[in-house]
What we know:
This protein is mainly alpha-helical.
Amino acid sequence: MSADVPRISGAEWQVMHVIWDEHPVSAAEVARRIGPERGWSLHTVKTLLARLTRKGVLSFEVQGKRYLYRPKLDRDTCVAAESESFLDRVFHGSPSPLLAHFLRKKRLSSQDIAELKSMLAEMEDDEP
């Protein structure tokens, strides 16, 4: 994982998706959006927001009695760091076994296959 991107837990990812989609956002709004489906209380959401703030992933501003949260790191940065970490941990850093695994386990639509072919063709064109 990139040294400047902290590790984000599964529960924290759920919170971050809400904040990336809509910010600034209050703890109550995050709890309203994902609490019921996860069974999380407002207290649980506030705990996750505090963790993410300590990790440097979120910032906040105080507005009256509310804290409004916004991301300090964008989604692409966190996804790239997490993807790299996953690739290193599970597939020893090699993308071929990762792709082979997912291709064997998931059914791809014709559109998915076309997109993959297009990406591979672009990569071949970019090689020296």
